[in-house]
Amino acid sequence: MAIEISVVTVGAVILVVLLLLVLSCISDHRDTHGQGGHKQRIQSALLHCLSRFLPRSTSPSLPGPPSFFLIGNMMELTHDHLPIHLTNLAQRYGAIYRLKCGNTTMVILNSSEVIREALVKKWSDFAGRPLSYTADIVSGGGCSISLGDYNKEWRAQRRAVHSALQRCCRQSLHNLIERQALHLRKVLIGYQGSAVDLAEDFTVATSNVITTLALGKEYNKSSSELQQLHSCLNEIVALWGSSWFKCSKLPNPVFSRLLKEVAKRDEMIKNHLSRYKSQAKENKDTITGSLLQGLDKQHNTEHGVLLTETHVHMATVDLLIGATETTAAWLSWTVAFLLHRPEVQTRVYEELCTVLEGRYPKYSDKHRLPFLCSLISEMLRLRPVAPLAVPHRAIRNSSVAGYFIPKDTVIIPNLFGAHHDPAVWSDPYSFRPERFLEGGGGSTHALIPFGGGARLCLGESVAKMELFLFTAYLLRDFQFIPPESEASLPDLRGVASVVLKVKPYTVIASPRPMTNP
Ligand code: HEM
C-alpha cells in the first residue's frame, strides 16, 4: 500500500512534536507548583492531534472515487436514485468505500456482512448519529430517538418508548390491525371496480394503527387534521433528507421551509399532548399516555436520567413518522409488483384458500403460509423502504472489514445495495418470491430491511405484523388488476428519498368470489 504523506502533514507533525517538547520543559518547571494534571491533559490532547496525522500503516486506505478540491465527492450524492447509484459504485469500489463531502468522510457499506459487522457486532462503536445544525432543529435539540445521538439520555428514552410500545402492542396490536384491514376492505369494495390510486388509503390504514397505539385516535381519510399532520411530517422527512444528502450541515435554502414545517409539527403535537394531560385517565393505555405518566415516576426508574416532556413529544413524532410512510410505501410497492406478476397473486390466493378454509388469517398462521411469507421477504429485499437506513456516526475509532474508521466518520448502511449484492443473491434485480421457499437459495439472514444493533428499527415487530396481516387480508379478498385504459404497468424503479416510494399508479381492486360486500 502506498502511503502518501503530504508536505502539510509533515509540517503539522513537526509543529505538534515541537509543541510537545516546549510544553514538557515548561511544565517540568510548573510541576513543582502542583499543575501536573493540567500538563497531562494538554499533552494527551496534543498526542491525540498527532495521532490524527500519522499514517496507520497496519490498515489499508479505503477505496473510493477520486475526490475533487473543495467539493470532494459531492457530485456522487446528487443522483436522483441514490441507492441505485451507490450500489453501482460498489461494483467498482467494493462492499465498503468512502465518499468525501467537505471535511466529512462518509463510509458506504454495501453488503449485509459489512453492515452487520458495523451495526451489530461493533454496535457500540457505530451507534451515533451525525451531528448537524439541521438535525438539531428537526430532533428538538437532539431529543428524538431517530436523530438523537447515542448517550445515556437517548438510551433511557429509547428504553422507555420501547417498553411502552411493547405493552400497548401486547394489549391490542393484532385486533387493531385486523380492524384497519377490514376497514380498508370496505373502502376498496366501495370503489366498485374503478381504477384508483390506493396510496392514500394505505397511508390512512397504517397511520391509524400507530395513531391509535400512540394517541388513542383514529382518523378518516377526509380528516383535515390527519392530512395536515401527514403533509407536514412528509415535508420534514423530505427536506431533512435532501439537505442531509447534499451535505449541508449549516443553514441552507431549504432551511427556512424546514423551520416552518417543524414549527407546525410542534404545534400539532403540543396540542395533542395538552389534550392528553386533561384526559390522563382515559389515555393511560396509549404509548404517549404511559410515557407522560412515566415522567412522574422516573426518578426511581431511569438510572438517574431525567426524561422531559420534549422527549415524549419527539418520541411521538418518531413513531408517527416511522410507522406511516414506511409500511404504506411497502404495501404500494407490493401491489405494483403483483400487477407485473399476476401468477404470484394467484399462488398466494390459492395458499390462503387452502390453508385458511375461508376464514381470515391470524399472525400465528405465518408458519402455515410459506408462499405469502416468501412474498413479504422478497418485497422487503427488493424494496427496503428505508434504503439507506438513517446515517450512523462512529463514536470512537474503530474498523470495518479491516479498514480503519476514525471517530466521527459518517456511516451509510446501503440496505438496498446489500439486498442486491450479486455475491449473495442470484439474479438480484428480479422479483422471485420462490427464492425464499425451502431450497430456493434465498437467505433471510442476509435480509436487513430494519437495520440492526442499537439502532434497529424500533417498530420492527409492529411492521412485521402489519405487513403480514394487511397483505393477507388484501390478497384474500381482492385480485389486483391493471386498468385497461393504461397501456403501461407501474414503474418499478421508484423515487428515492429517505423513503423509497413507487411512483403514483392506479389499479383495479376486483373482489374475489368469497368477498361479501
Ligand atoms: C416496513 C416497515 C419499516 C421498515 C422497513 C423500517 C426500517 C427502518 C430502518 C432501516 C431504520 C433505521 C435503522 C438504522 O438507523 O440503522 C428504522 C428506524 C426507526 N424506525 Fe422503522 N421501519 C419500518 C416501520 C416502522 C414502524 C412501524 C415504526 C414505529 C412503530 C418504526 C419506527 C422507527 C424508529 C423510531 C426508528 C429510529 C430508531 C433509532 O434511531 O434508534 N419503523 N426503521
Automatic annotation (TrEMBL):
Name this polypeptide is given: Steroid 21-hydroxylase
Pfam annotation, one family: p450
Keywords: Endoplasmic reticulum, Heme, Iron, Lipid-binding, Membrane, Metal-binding, Microsome, Monooxygenase, Oxidoreductase, Steroid-binding, Steroidogenesis
Required cofactor(s): heme; heme b
EC number: 1.14.14.16
Species per Swiss-Prot/TrEMBL record: Monopterus albus
Topology term for the membrane: Peripheral membrane protein
Lineage top rank: taxon: Eukaryota
Secretion signal, residue range per the UniProt entry: none
Binding residues annotated for heme, in chain numbering: C457
InterPro entries linked: Cyt_P450 (IPR001128), Cyt_P450_CS (IPR017972), Cyt_P450_E_grp-I (IPR002401), Cyt_P450_sf (IPR036396)
Main location: endoplasmic reticulum
GO BP: hormone biosynthetic process; progesterone metabolic process; steroid biosynthetic process
GO MF, one example: iron ion binding
Assigned GO CC terms: endoplasmic reticulum membrane
